[in-house]
Amino acid sequence: MAELTLRNKLAEILSKPNNPELEMDFRATCSAIQLDTSLDDPPVMQAYEDYLNAYQQKTSLYNLKGDRLIIYNTETETQEVKILQTPQPLDLYTCTTQLPNGKLFCFGNIAPFGNAALIDLNGGIEVLPSGTSCGFSSCICFNKSVYCFGGYNKGYLTLSSKFDLDQNRWFQLTPMPRSDYQCHSIMFNGNILFSGYYNRHLFLYSIDIDSFSTIPYEFAIRRRKILINAERLYLIECDKGGVIYESEIGSYMNWIPIEKTIKIDWSTQQVYCSYNKGGICIGIKGSDYFKFDLKEKRVIELKI
């Protein structure tokens, strides 16, 4: 029970901006819930490792491109390329999410061995049981399960499923209220908030009761939307201009446009975003990188 509480507290910390004082922040969290803060205790050590891995995920952008895994570190502004150990290039319609152990969970049309796999950061691949055949889904990890929403296979899907990492099997969940694809998911107060491509509103999935709520606010453009969880929530409409919306603190109901003319080519399907150092970091096709500075409200081109 203590370990579960600790992980919940860590999830709260991870929803805030990156904190360079990681260990101090972690120990303060342990102390607040009256848990021994010694890193020698297995539950604490495991939670701390999860925390560090999640921090690494926040500072890196990952892009699968054929037989390569491209890792861009937004703190050091350096790029590393790993050659994947696969006999054929991976499909570009694959979605990925990083697990607490640092591996990438991949789901989609990743021929030749099915549509689900784990990729370690050295390029090794572990084949997993296949889920629903589709591409352009979203996936996000929470509590040793990966949740997948939406997708495309001869039409837009209401796909809602999870892969249990301990049991190594898929479970079907309540279908989405409306079909969509190119969805993008974030954790918000223990639930999953996600956007799609064609639906102008957002969805909130309650993990505990396996149900969806539709967020009534409608955005101006029916195009792909990317969510970022920082001290506030941010939403990018990947269309002409690239509109960025900012939410009220602790809310997903009220959104204000803060920038309407981000001069980036959003036409590609391969757009990856993260939050770091007071800005939204954006990767395009695994070759161009930018940061939108939230304080100065301007786009900075990052080095490679």
UniProtKB/TrEMBL annotation:
This is Kelch motif family protein. Gene3D superfamilies: Kelch-type beta propeller (2.120.10.80). InterPro entries: Gal_Oxase/kelch_b-propeller, Kelch-typ_b-propeller.
